[in-house]
Amino acid sequence: VQLQASGGGLVQPGGSLRLSCAASGSLFSINNMGWYRQAPGKQRELVASITSGGSTNYADSVKGRFAISRDNAKKTVYLQMNSLKPEDTAVYYCNAWRAVVGGRYDYWGQGTLVTVSS
């Protein structure tokens, strides 16, 4: 599985961006897909995830502002980000994982930089 992220950029506070993550290869064994982010000097954190059945999970800091969705036919996951704040500034990484014996195996896309600044 290969993941290609796009859609980052510079946006003013209160603005919106939509990130896309296009997957190639078989997603048959993939359990979840989602987005993580890493701000300078901080650990990578989960932003949002979505299961193959469409159930979603969000970090508390983005609930009500971000929405994750997926188009299975296009093998693409989207992250709609609204009401962006300066603290949302980070490199955003697309993620997919599958269960393996004893844990999980993660696939990562290249990061896309989101900068929220006036």
Task: Provide a compact summary of the structure.
This protein has 118 residues and is an all-beta fold.
Q: Residue-averaged pLDDT, rounded?
A: 94
Structural class: mainly beta
Query: What's the helical proportion of residues?
Result: under 10%
In one word, what is the shape?
Answer: globular
Biggest sheet, in brief? 7 strands, mixed
Ranges with pLDDT <50 over ≥5 residues?
A: none
Q: SSE string, helix = H, strand = E?
A: EEEEEEEEEEE
- Strand proportion: over 45%
From the alpha carbons, calculate the radius of gyration and give it in angstroms.
Answer: 14 Å
Q: What is the distance, rounded to the nearest whole angstrom, between the alpha carbons of the first and last residues?
A: 37 Å
Q: What is the chains' assembly state?
A: single chain
**Helical run tally:** 0
For the secondary structure, the number of strands is: 11
